[in-house]
Structures are given as C-alpha cells and as structure tokens.
Amino acid sequence: MVSTIWFIALPLGLAFILPFRGLGHTKRDLTIIPLVLTIVLGGLLFLFRLAVTSPVLEGFVLDPPLGISFRMGATEFLFLMIVIGSAFLIALNIYGEKNDIFKGYQFPLIFSLFLTGAIGIILTGDLFNLFIFWEILSIAAYLLTTLEGKSRSFEGGIKYLLTGALSSVFILIAVSLIYYSAGTMDMVELGRLIPALPSGFKALIFLCLFIGFAIEAEIFPLNLWAPDVFEASESRAGGLFSSIAVKTAAFALLRLFFVLFGGAEIAGYSFFTVLLVLALATLIIAEFAAFHQSNLKRMLGYSSIGQVALALTALSLATESALTAGLFHLLNHSLIKVLLFSLAAFFIRKAGSESIADFKGMGRKFPVAGLFFTIGALAVAGFPPFSPFASKMAILKALMDGGHFIVLTGILVATVVEVGYYFKVIQVLYAPVEKTEKEKIKPMVLFSWFVPAALLTGLGIYPSVIMKYISLAAGALF
Amino acid sequence: MLKRILLIVSMVLLALILLPLLEGLGEQTHVSSLAEYYLSSGADDLNSPNLVTSVVVTYRGLDTLGEVTVLFAAAAGIMLAFKGLKMDEKEREKTQGPSELLASGASLLFPILFIFGIYIFTHGHLSPGGGFQGGVVIASAALLLLLSGVIPGVSHLMTSLLEALAGASYVAIGLLGLYLAAGFLDPRFLPRGEWSGIFSAGAIPVIYSLVGIKVGSELSAVLNAMISKGGEK
To answer: What residues form the membrane-spanning segments (chain B) (predicted)?
Structure first.
C-alpha cells in the first residue's frame, strides 16, 4: 500500500537535500526539479483516485483521535488536484522561460517547501499539525516574495512576514485554548467536543482561528498586505500565491466552518453570515481597486482577491449546491490565474516594464500570447463558453435560491467592473503600433499557456467531466 | 494622531476579546484522555524514560519534523537574504585579531561545549534535553570560536553536507518506521534495548541525534553568514 505520507516525504526530502546539491554552483539551472516533483506528485495523486469515493484515513504510530492522522476524501482530493495541478503548470512555465532568479538551488528548495506546506494543510487531520504546515507554507511564501532580491521584494517580504506572523499568533492562541479545553487535537474529534464548550470560549476560539485563516485567505479588512506582496514578487510567484496559498487558506476556512464548528453557530448566531458579508465587501472593494491599477501584477492581485471572495460568498451559503458552485469556481480561478500570471511574466519581460500602458501593441507583436490573454480575461470575466461562466452562473443561482438579492446585485456590479478593467488591458495589448517583427515563443511556454486555456474551454463546454468529483467533494463536507 | 488613536482602539478591542480568558482559564483538575494514554502506556510502548521525548519524537513526530523544517526554511531565508552582502575590505582590516587570553579561553571551552551538545542530544530519551537543545549548544560553541576570531569562518561545505545528510536520513527513518513498524516515524523497528540504556527506545536516540546534527550545523551556518560575510561565496 502506498501511504499518504509520501505526499509530504517526497517534497520535504528533496528540500533537505537541495542545499548540498547547489553547492559551488549557485547559478546552475535546476528548474527541471520542481517540474519533475510536481509530475511525481501528480502520479501519486492518481494512485489515490479511489479515495474520492472511499476515503483514506491513516494514523501514524497511534490511531486517531490519539495520534496525528492524514485524511483523504473527495474534498481533500479536489484541493490536492488544484494545488498540484497549478504547481505543475507554473513549474512548466518557469522551466520554459526562466529568469535568473529561478536558477540555482534556492527556487526548487522554496518551491518544495511551499508544496509541503500546502499539501500538509490539506491532508492533515490534526489541528496542531495544520498549524505547523501553515508555518512552513508561510515561510516559503515570504521567501518566494524576496526571491528577486530587490529592495522592493524585501519590503514586500517583510510586510508579508509581519502579517503572516500575526496570523500565526492568532492560530496558536486558538490551538492552545482548544487543547486546554478539549484535550485533543484531532479535528473530527474536536468537531464532537467543541459544541459542549461554554459559548464565550467557543466564540473566542472561533474568532482567533477565523482571523488567522482569513489573513491568508485575503479577506477584507485583513488583506491590506496582499496587493503589495503581489506587486513585489515575480509574476509566477504571484501565480503560486493566487492559485495555491490562497486556495489552501480557503480550505482551512472550510475545515473551520464545517469540521471544527459544524454549522458555525455560536449562541444562536451563525458565523456564515459574517463570512458572507465580509466576502461580499472584499469582492466589491477589490474589483473597484483593481480598476484603478496601472501595474499589471497589482491589478491581477486585486482580481485574485475578488475572485476568491466570490467563491467564499458561495461557500458561506452552506448548501450543497452553493458549495459545489464555490468549489468549482475555486478550481476555475486557479486555472485562470496560472494562465494570466504566466502571461504577465511574459509581457513584463518583453516590455521591460510592469505598467499596463507599456504593453502597447504586445498583442499584435505576439499574437498567440495576446490570444491567450484574451481567453484568460474573457474567462475571468465570466463569458461563455469558458468554465468560470458555468461556476459564476451556479453561484448566482444558489444566491437566488437563498433569496440573497443584495449580494447578487453586488456580484453583478463587481463583474461589470471586472469586465471593464480586463478590457482596458486587452485594448492596450491590441493598440495599433508600427509594424514590428513577430518573435518566436518557446514551445514549452506555449504549452504551459495552452493547457490551462484548453482546460478552461473544455470544462466550460463539458462541465460534467469534473462536476461529478466536485459535487462529491461538496457532499463530503456535510 | 489619528493613526495612534486607531491603534489604541484596536488594542482595547483585542483586549476585550481576550478578556474571557481571565476568568475562563483555571487550573486543570483532571488529565485529558490523550494525556492519560501517554502517562499509562507511553513508557511501556516505547521504552523511553523521558516521556516528553516520547511525545515529541514519536507520538507528535510529524510535528517535530515540521518544526525542523520551519527552522530549516528560516535558515535558508537568512542565507538568501545575506547573500551578496559582503563585508568591506577596509572594514575587515580594521577588525583586530583576538587577544591571547580570549583565543586560548575560547579554544579551551570549545571542545567542552561541543561534547556537551553531543551528550544532550544522544541522551534525549533519558534525560531532559534533546535534538534542538543539543544542536543549539553546538552552534553556541561555534559562535564562541567565530566571535573570538579563532577561526575565520565555518566551512560551508561541511555544514551543508551535514545538514543535507541529517535531514534526508530523518525522512528516511520516518519511512522505515512506516514500512517496518506501525507508522511514519515509529521508532520501534529498532530493538527496544534495556530500560534507560543509551541504546534503547528504538530509533528515538537516532532521530534526536539527527535533529541535533541538523540544528547544530544549520545554526552554525546562519551565525557564520551573519558574522563573517555573505552566506555563500
């Protein structure tokens, strides 16, 4: 039997060995390592495909609730698919088109740790263990931000470090309170024990965990750090944050709302309402802020905050159909942001600038890149036939069924704004310029754009291919 | 001014949120079922007199591996940040060599500290202390040599080799536990040994020694990067 621990042991073992590998060759090109790692992890995930219908529960040394355990059911499988899939596409893009900063052993090392953290958070069934993996993911994310080595990246990295530390402090307070009052760390067991706690205590624990996770999930008003971090890091590092770190935080929120506090009701008050209001506020503020950005990475960062908030609005409705829609949207959003951040890296390198105004005519000079950006922009704005159209419609339908018409109006307004700013970029890309020679793009890079674009189109036309898994994942949360 | 008021308001709010803790947290009157299990079966299970070590290395072994990783990531981050920072040549010339007294004192203390560090991590399953503590003692021995100027720097080749070997072996031992015993990081694939003997408690002393070596070399490398020059040449 293959154990779920391999998902951790492989990237971790690799990260431990890498500093020695890089010795004396600090600039040797090792970008193939992340690519191979993600392929191997993908193969490993394939071996666990049956976990979708028959969940795997694996205790280490002691069986749960006494010891640490890994759980893999339909929800975990879906999130692992998102994490490993996005990591693969970004590693492929970086392998195809590497800047100097990705050479040397540092990037593969940080990438492996980043994956270790994200996968660990998803698999573990133990709250303290989740906190540890949360720390690993966060530290890897700070390092990714500073990878470029400019003063701006260090500024972003330190901002990220400070907010991340705040998030960790809150989670740690909650973890110690939980252990004090319930005497165990196993999350399923805690789901049984927590309802019996006094409600003041419960509210405190819930708030601390919520603040801790929401900082990383970029929920307003705890997301002020995020745009700076997106601007400070290389585009594809931004892609890793947007498609992996934020999704992992959303998963942690699901654990909090559905496993630890089943129903999230404390003293007759449902915290799903709080999540709904905050997510809607995040969505609207982020989309309006994105409209005013002149820096492409910053704009994509705001757009990412908005899209995840949209998915969270759906998740906060806590019905099975809304959850299915929200999870589907999270998956779609990862594909979109992998594509758009990879393209942003390309345009920024070619233009030598991050300012949107400097991308004039890039779509004419590089027709294929322009086409893929247009696909990504249309997809994120929710145009058919791309899959976000299906997930957005499902979210709107769930809101309609729940009678949340104010939320629905808010989402529609945000979508209009979103269409506006993405079209502004497209307009610049296709602005007429004097005829320039067309340049060739490496096939590996083209392939790394083609895969997410094809998936967005394919899943838009045949959503049923994936819907089976997603509704199983949503069902497993109850 | 406004910023300061906002700061004070948010601090007061946070204090209010945390207020229930003052009355809610009393002394625990009973031991939880998990702690009960550790107390009643821990010693028999793993044959280690130091129950804290049993919990840290075995029952919560995955957490400890994670903590080692956190330290590793932080050290890697420091090396990354210090890369390219080079001490001015002039600055270097200005630094004086160690005085005779300091140099002999440090050279005398170093082997004692070093051996004490090794003692702490090899006896982690018998007495207080363990891999992290032992590693830190070893790093402080290295710090003494670096600060007193007895050695110009710690060899990066050596620290990175030790670090990589110890880290990889830690993961490998975890996997051995998975296939030869009850689960990942289960130490019972090695013989239990005699109660409170140095070769007892299965793989626990091996794991703690690896942690000690890893932490010691990692922290020495970090101190080296901070004191002498950039992390790497």
So the answer is: 64-82, 102-122, 134-154, 161-185, 197-216
